[in-house]
């Protein structure tokens, strides 16, 4: 059985949990606090970030987009009709463009700020950067999330799923990031109905269930968080 | 003929120029100033970043790592002995891990600061963020580059090239980033001989030549910049 070193509210870890659930894989989950820089964890991933997938034979695969490529190459062909990274070069470019959009850009402009300031800082010692949240960072993220939501709405007004006619890694990455922001109540869903309907579709998939049961100690999710008809 | 929209001192653009030269491709080059957010350019890449490769048929491929994957899938198999993204799953993981290391981590900790503060700010209007360089950012980058250089030295003490026995995308990405920092004279080469020897090997490849002739208007490179025996 493969092992996934993850952090429950790390959006990149959530993306990989979604991929593996869609592929019918049930990894052994190990919760990491990356800021503690555990030595064994750094041996698996010198960059010190979650997630890291470790195969039964010992191969460590670090980083969400690298794991996504790896799983497509080693498991994806078995999915026939439901390949999460499609076959044609142009379709692969579009999926990877949007993967980058959400794993890098959305993370830098929205999720990174909110998850660090509102969640992880609660569990960090002051030595590791813990302390009260930086309200400027939170305000910036809340402002930025609005144009990303519009962009999702724009894409979904022209396509069935974010990158085209089929569900792909792009949908799972975007939804994984949004799920963290949604836990915190910071997605203004009433501003874009197309985006909301798309998220409701992704959220209703069986692969999403385990994400919706995770809780931050001492911090309840937004009321509608686990509600499939929000 | 393919067109590459690039910026001469954007390290990601330099990486793609190296790949294409190694593959024997000679793209038509179009210099972009991404901060000007030219409308036609944003249509090709809504994220507004360089590089963007445009195929003769019109397909736009945005972003260095996406272009690298695309070129491997559409041209790489033709390289037989010199495939820049090797075949085996474990080797691909290692190349992609190091690609991420240099394209993301090194960029965020070193190149991004230096190129923005010392080069791009000279050409930006104040409206686009131009102005005098932020010395704190430059100091941080100069401090960070030292441990990256050690890491390169550590890898090269155990392997012929960064990711293993063959030249791969990892070497080209790392060298592309270092070439920008080296232009500015900010690589402390005397701190790591292994790293310096590795860089001299990459820099001596014919694919590197065109990078070494680029100049920033009004700013000469470090003395040894174009010297293959520095």
Automatic annotation (TrEMBL), chains A, B:
Keyword Transferase: yes
UniProt xrefs under PROSITE patterns: GLUTAREDOXIN_2, GST_CTER, GST_NTER
Listed name of the protein: Glutathione S-transferase family protein
Subunit structure: Homodimer.
Keyword Transmembrane helix included in the entry's annotation: no
Keywords per UniProt: Transferase
PANTHER family to which the protein is assigned, alphabetical: GLUTATHIONE S TRANSFERASE D10, ISOFORM A-RELATED
Domain of life, per lineage: Bacteria
Species, as recorded: Methylobacterium currus
The GST N-terminal domain, residue ranges: 1-79
């Amino acid at each position: 059985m493969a092992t996934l070193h993850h952090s429950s509210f790390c959006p990149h870890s959530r993306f990989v949990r979604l991929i593996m659930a869609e592929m019918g894989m049930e990894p052994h989950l190990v919760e990491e606090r990356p800021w503690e820089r555990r030595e064994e964890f750094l041996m698996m991933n010198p960059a010190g970030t979650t997630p890291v997938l470790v195969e039964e034979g010992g191969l460590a695969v670090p980083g969400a987009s690298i794991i996504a490529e790896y799983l497509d190459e080693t498991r994806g062909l078995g999915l026939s009709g439901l390949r999460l990274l499609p076959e044609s070069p142009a379709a692969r470019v579009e999926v990877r463009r949007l993967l980058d959009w959400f794993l890098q850009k959305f993370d830098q402009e929205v999720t990174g700020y909110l998850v660090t300031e509102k969640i992880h800082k609660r569990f960090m010692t002051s030595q590791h950067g813990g302390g009260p949240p930086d309200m400027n960072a939170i305000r910036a993220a809340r402002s930025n999330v609005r144009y990303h939501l519009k962009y999702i709405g724009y894409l979904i007004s022209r396509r069935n799923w974010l990158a085209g006619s089929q569900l792909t890694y792009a949908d799972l990455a975007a939804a994984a990031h949004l799920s963290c922001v949604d836990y915190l109540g910071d997605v203004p869903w009433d501003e874009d109905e197309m985006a909301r309907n798309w998220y409701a579709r992704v959220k209703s998939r069986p692969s999403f269930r385990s994400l919706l049961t995770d809780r931050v100690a001492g911090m309840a999710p937004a009321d509608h968080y686990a509600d499939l008809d929000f």
